Amino acid sequence: HYVSPSVWAWRQKRVLKIREGCDLMLTLLPFEARFYEEQGVPVRFVGHPLADTIPLESDRAGARAGLGFAQDTPVVALMPGSRGGEVGRLGGLFFDTAELLL
C-alpha cells in the first residue's frame, strides 16, 4: 500500500494502530510526514511521483481548446467522488442539480 491513510484528516486515533503495526510509513506530502513523526510513527517523506509534472498554474485557454469548449462559455464540472460507492450514491443527485442549473 503506497499511499498512507489520511489519519491526519479524520479519525486521528487510527494512528495508534498504525504505530503498532508499521515499521516505516512512506508519505507523499511533507505535512503527512510531520504528522506521523509527531505521533511517534517511523516515517520518511518520499514525495508524489506526479508532483513535478502537474503545473501549479492552469492553462485555461489550452484546456478549453483541448476539450473543444468555447472560450467564453461557462463550464461546470460534476465531481461526485472517486470511489464507486460515492458515485453511486451521489451521481444522480449531481445530475439532477446540473439539470436545475442548466
Automatic annotation (TrEMBL):
Record flagged with keyword NADP: no
Keyword hit for Transferase: yes
Annotated InterPro entries: Glyco_trans_19 (IPR003835)
Tree of life domain: Bacteria
One Pfam family hit: LpxB
Reactions catalysed: a lipid X + a UDP-2-N,3-O-bis[(3R)-3-hydroxyacyl]-alpha-D-glucosamine = a lipid A disaccharide + UDP + H(+)
GO molecular function: lipid-A-disaccharide synthase activity; phospholipid binding
This protein's UniProt keywords: Glycosyltransferase, Lipid A biosynthesis, Lipid biosynthesis, Lipid metabolism, Transferase
Known EC number: 2.4.1.182
Stretches that traverse the bilayer: none
GO cellular component: membrane
EC class of the enzyme, as a word: transferase
GO biological process: lipid A biosynthetic process
Function: Condensation of UDP-2,3-diacylglucosamine and 2,3-diacylglucosamine-1-phosphate to form lipid A disaccharide, a precursor of lipid A, a phosphorylated glycolipid that anchors the lipopolysaccharide to the outer membrane of the cell.
Family listed: Belongs to the LpxB family.
Protein name: Lipid-A-disaccharide synthase
Protein species of origin: Pseudomonas syringae pv. coryli
